[in-house]
Write a structure and sequence with these properties.
This protein is of the alpha/beta class and about 300 residues long. It has a single domain, classed as TIM Barrel, CATH 3.20.20.70. Helix content is about 40%, strand content about 20%. Strands 1-2-3-4-5-7-8-9 form an eight-stranded parallel β-barrel, surrounded by four helices. Helix 6 links the parallel strand 4 and strand 5. The longest helix has 18 residues.
Length: about 300
């Protein structure tokens, strides 16, 4: 039997399990083998590589030039399984629907698992900055035996909804820390340009965003940052002592240039690894394994 046919059968099994035996999801979470170095995020290498798969829940389905690339759930899961099976990949970041599919596929054993928490700021919506916590909360992440939660915070000085998002993120950081779980905060200074939310990727804006994110919650002991590669990264990352992961962002037109930027930033003392999704799952040449292996080699 060919590989694609075998995977199609596994997807069919997931569909039937969800329909007839939904309790199996919780059972799979309880029986999952955690990363050997848990509860620490970092293993013996001192580096962390996560695959991000929380874009669909925010209505963001584009990958590169393909508008609905991530709308094919079976295709996304197959790519995730390939990526998670490559040497040097430590884990995954996703929403409940994706992580539960991966649980049922047995793809999360021995992996670091991060639950995505706020996906309510739907891409392109008028309420995008008001990024409600519509995904995991701290009790659910703990109950599932996962290792932490991730939150996105876009700080728009001209949008009053920023205040509520800041407060919600602060509560999430505190709730995770109370359970000794990592809080991965992805901060940006953002503005609306022609009605669309745009992130300011200048060094000055990222330093301001990092400074704000570092101060959220009742303790920063379990807080990590998730940041893009921008100009003058040495100065940007000097804005905080918190450990940080580089984000992959959009599928690049020039992968070699993107990899070079990651390579340089990974030399900085607070940068401990990377979180990449579309750029590795949907590379221009469609070779997921090769893209992941190249990214891991940068570490």
């Amino acid at each position: 039997m060919r590989g694609p046919e075998m995977f199609a059968e596994r997807i069919a099994e997931i569909i039937e399990t969800r329909a007839q035996r939904p309790e199996v999801v919780a059972q799979a979470a309880l029986s999952r083998k955690r990363a050997p170095w848990a509860p620490s995020l970092l293993g013996p290498s001192g580096r962390l590589v996560l695959i991000a798969a929380d874009h669909p829940a925010r209505g963001s389905l584009r990958a590169g030039r393909v508008r609905a690339a991530m709308a094919d759930r079976a295709g996304l899961l197959e790519r995730l399984c390939v990526a998670l099976g490559r040497p040097g990949v430590d884990g995954v970041l996703g929403t409940a629907d994706v992580l539960e599919d991966l649980l049922l596929l047995g793809a999360l054993d021995g992996k670091v698992v991060i639950g995505s928490m706020n996906r309510g700021g739907l891409s392109g919506s008028v309420f995008e900055i008001d990024d409600r916590f519509t995904g995991y909360d701290a009790p659910a992440i703990s109950r599932m035996g996962f290792d932490g939660g991730k939150m996105l915070i876009r700080i728009d000085p001209d949008d009053p909804a920023t205040a509520a998002t800041l407060q919600a993120c602060a509560h999430a950081v505190s709730g995770l820390a109370d359970r000794r779980l990592a809080a991965i905060v992805e901060p940006f200074i953002s503005h609306r340009v022609d009605g669309q939310v745009r992130n300011d990727l200048s060094a000055e804006a990222m330093m301001r965003a990092i400074a704000i994110a570092s101060g959220l919650g009742t303790t920063s002991a379990y807080t990590w940052l998730k940041v893009p590669v921008v100009p003058d990264m040495e100065r940007v990352m000097a804005a905080s002592t918190l450990p940080a992961l580089l984000l992959g962002g959009e599928v690049p037109d020039d992968p070699e240039s993107a990899f070079a930027g990651w390579r340089k930033a990974l030399r900085l003392p607070t940068v401990k690894g990377l979180v990449a999704g579309r750029s590795l799952l949907y590379p221009a040449d469609d070779d997921v394994a090769a893209a992941v292996d190249t990214a891991v080699s940068l570490l």
